[in-house]
Amino acid sequence: MKFFKLVYLLFTPRLSTEEVGKKIVDKATRSAFRVFRDNDFRKLVKFSEISQTEQDRIFNELVVNAVVLAVLMTETRANQIEDSNFSRSVRILSKAIKKRYPEMLQALGVTNQQHIDMWHQLIDMRIEEYRKYEKDMRNDVDEATKHIPWLPIVITGTVDHIRRGKLKEGDTLFKIISSWLGPLLVGIQKVMFRLER
């Protein structure tokens, strides 16, 4: 496995932090849209029975949680990297990811500054919420989860926000969100490998 990773690293063109941040957020938002359009997902959220406003809120939850997973994962990864220059690049990448979606909305023609500001606030709010949750649960998890705890936290948070805090044990939505965010995290890590060192 390490051999293939080395070959990948040697022969994959390097990208700037801005380019990698753009690719990660584009990947995250496209994947959120695929989940939003998925028939099984729509059945579980009773899509045809809810208002347009509620549908929009659910889509926004998918997007913000995908972006926040990328931000938290890159921040954590930056703390684990021994090479100080590369660690600095990963920290810059995390900041680039955080601001990319609101910038993308502006590029698509969203001119309402309140809407753009709302996205910055929502991303910051979720990051702080999940950091607090991680701090509270730090002593209750196994060693493997302590290194990168964000996947289970963001999965739970996504379902919690979609369900408006009405979580139920055995909810099939956990399975759908897990099967989306797990591969997304792997994809984000692959794109991150392309970051200039």
Describe the structure.
The protein is an all-alpha fold and 197 residues long. Helix content is 78%, strand content 0%. The protein has nine helices and no strands. It has helices at 2-11, 17-37, 39-44, 52-80, 84-107, 113-137, 143-147, 150-162, 172-192. α2 (17-37) runs antiparallel to α4 (52-80) and α4 (52-80) crosses α6 (113-137). The longest helix has 29 residues, at 52-80. It is globular, with a radius of gyration of 17 Å. The two termini are 21 Å apart. The model has no long low-confidence stretch (mean pLDDT 90).
Name a few traits of the molecule:
197 residues; mainly alpha; 9 helices; 78% helix; globular
Helix and strand topology:
Elements: H1 2-11, H2 17-37, H3 39-44, H4 52-80, H5 84-107, H6 113-137, H7 143-147, H8 150-162, H9 172-192
Helix pairs in contact: 2-4, 2-5, 2-9, 4-5, 4-6, 4-8, 4-9, 5-6, 8-9
Which percent range fits the helix content?
over 70%
Q: How much of the polypeptide forms β-strand, as a percent range?
A: under 5%
Strand pairing plus helix content: what structural class? mainly alpha
**What value does the average pLDDT take?**
90
* Mass-distribution shape: globular
User: What's the number of extended β-strand segments?
Assistant: 0
**N-C termini distance:** 21 Å
Please tell me how large the radius of gyration is: 17 Å
Q: Low-confidence parts lasting 5 or more residues at pLDDT below 50? A: none
Q: How do the helices and strands follow one another from N- to C-terminus?
A: HHHHHHHHH
Number of helices: 9
Task: Let me know the largest β-sheet.
Answer: none
